[in-house]
Write a structure and sequence with these properties.
The structure holds 2 protein chains of 2 kinds. Chain A is an alpha+beta fold. Chain A folds into 2 domains: 170 residues, 2-Layer Sandwich (Beta-Lactamase); 193 residues, Hypothetical protein af1432, CATH 1.10.3210. Chain A is built from 15 helices and 6 strands. Chain B is globular and about 35 Å long. In chain B, strand 4, helix 4 and strand 5 form a beta-alpha-beta unit. Classes of the chains: A alpha+beta, B alpha/beta. Chains A and B meet through strand 2, strand 3 and helix 6 of A and helix 1, strand 6 and helix 5 of B.
């Protein structure tokens, strides 16, 4: 029964769309070729950047005949590679190579009269015969030779017909796309990782800048981040937190930046040794909103921004800037509120001395439900009872 | 007459290289375990042996090498390591135990057969 290559191609194409990993895709293509063309073997040489050679990476077909994957390499100087890179060798203008044709080429006047061609084609036919390759196709992306597809003879020993060669050309370009996409995905992933690092670096730098302004709170930000995360871990044991990875990330960033708004506050006010006046107090209360303003142009920080905005709100609605209450206060803000308050209490301030850890804990417990979110306070107390 | 023993725990590799060299007119034997390799060696007495290193255990290749050198000198039998390992320690150990060359996978198949002929030539001279 005649195989409908068009149908096979469509079937294969449908499956390929579902596959993301390049090697899985190429293995599928090789299996498709071996099964449909009934060849003794098929394999793909892929270019390795680090070693600058082509390595047979995927291989299918009969054991003993097929070249084991990873065993064999082709340096760029080898005739098979040169054939595809230099079109002057492609005497019939085809982009595929049928080994049987080379014998005919060697008989052509043009070749017989050129020692360069003679030598080249003799080597080429030797090379391909030694691995029993009947057909070779290049895998190009634009003008980059990403690899070479090789096929052994058909089990029927019959020659390859043009429909089959076209089928193979199409599969080669699919392989090229797969490789190209894989390297794009890889680049994208690396960029994303790089940018995340950059992002966190910038944030840390900002946090340091804040601390530099407010000399009584060196280390405060770090301690708030640390304590906030510990509270969050305890809270997670007590209740469900949706989308934990994002929550943890947002909490970390929000804690790092919770005082960013203080950049807008005059140092004289921040470091005043006595109580603040009404005017000065108004300034201090502005800092969460300044924080929001500073961060608003940055994408993907919605939850972070709202946490920073509301970290001075009170559970009973008596906080600032908006006086929202209870569950309306984002959980991250509620956590930072406790961590921030605790650390402030156990630190020396220009206007008062530090409290002891026990005194600070008592204060927090005392304000459970009024200033602070009750569950968060419970989680906070668990952090200390666990000896963490 | 020349006999070549090819030892690799991957049967694909042992069979393929065996067939490859057989097509060039050489008498070859594949082996995939230490026992098989040593049995075939003692029975057929090949004069050229290719050894993988990591097989069923990480040092099997060296075990086979030592066994071969117990019974045959470097003039009688040429042993060449054929392995994916490219660390200096393995190379030095191979040399110390009596291997005469060290090939790292992947190999250039086109020059491999020329290399084999070279090894055989050296044995005969």
């Amino acid at each position: 029964m005649r195989v409908s290559y068009r149908k096979e191609l469509e079937k294969a194409a449908r499956r390929m769309i579902l596959i993301h990993r390049t090697d899985t895709l190429i293995r599928l293509i090789i299996r498709t070729i071996v099964r449909n063309l009934k060849v003794s073997y098929a394999g793909v040489f892929l270019y390795q950047q680090e070693k600058k050679v082509y390595v047979l990476t995927v291989s299918g077909g009969r054991i003993g005949i097929k070249i084991p994957a990873g065993l064999v390499k082709l340096p760029p100087s080898s005739p098979l590679v040169k054939f595809f890179l230099d079109s002057s060798y492609q005497l019939d203008g085809d982009n595929y190579l049928i080994v049987k044709k080379i014998k005919g080429w060697l008989r052509r006047k043009k070749v017989k009269e050129s020692s360069r061609y003679k030598k080249f084609f003799t080597e080429l036919i030797q090379q391909l015969s030694s691995i029993k390759t009947e057909v070779a196709l290049p895998i190009f992306f634009r003008d980059e030779l990403l690899g070479i597809l090789i096929l052994g003879e058909k089990l029927s020993k019959k020659r390859f017909i043009s429909e089959e060669l076209i089928f193979l050309s199409i599969l080669s370009s699919d392989v090229a796309m797969a490789i190209r996409n894989a390297s794009l995905f890889e680049n994208l992933r690396l960029q994303l990782e790089k940018n995340q690092k950059l992002f966190l670096q910038t944030i840390s730098a900002l946090a340091e800048a804040i601390e530099a302004k407010d000399k009584y709170t060196i280390g405060h930000t770090e301690r708030v981040v640390d304590l906030s995360l510990k509270i969050a871990y305890q809270l997670r044991k007590m209740r469900k937190i949706k989308n934990w990875d994002k929550f943890e990330r947002d909490l970390k960033v929000a804690a790092l930046l919770h005082d960013i708004g203080k950049i807008g506050i005059p140092e004289t006010v921040l470091n005043k040794p006595v109580s603040l006046t009404e005017e000065e107090w108004k300034f201090i209360k502005k800092h969460p909103l300044i924080g929001v303003e500073i961060l608003s142009p940055i994408k993907n920080l919605k939850e972070v921004i709202s946490a920073i905005k509301y970290h001075h709100e009170r559970y009973d609605g008596g906080g600032y800037p908006e006086g929202i209450k209870g569950k309306k206060i984002p959980l991250i803000a509620a956590i930072i509120a406790v961590a921030d308050a605790y650390d402030a209490m156990i630190s020396d301030r220009p206007y008062r001395k530090a409290l002891s850890s026990n005194q600070a804990k008592k204060e927090i417990r005392r304000n459970k439900g009024s200033q602070f979110h009750p569950q968060v306070v419970e989680a906070f107390l668990k952090v200390f009872s666990n000896g963490r | 007459m020349d006999k070549i023993l090819i030892v690799d725990d991957e049967v694909e590799v042992a069979e393929f290289l065996s067939n490859f060299l057989r097509r060039k007119g050489m008498k070859t034997f594949p082996a995939t375990t230490v026992k098989e390799a040593i049995d075939i060696f003692l029975r057929e007495r090949p004069n050229l042996v290719f050894l993988d290193i990591g097989m069923q255990t990480p040092d099997d290749g060296f075990i086979i090498l030592e066994k071969i050198r117990e019974v045959a000198s470097e003039e009688e039998v040429k042993v060449v390591m054929l392995t994916a390992r490219e660390d200096k320690a393995s190379m030095m150990k191979a040399k110390k135990l009596g291997a005469q060359d060290y090939l790292v996978k992947p190999i250039d198949l086109m020059t491999f057969d020329k290399l084999v002929l070279q090894y055989l030539k050296e044995l005969h001279s």
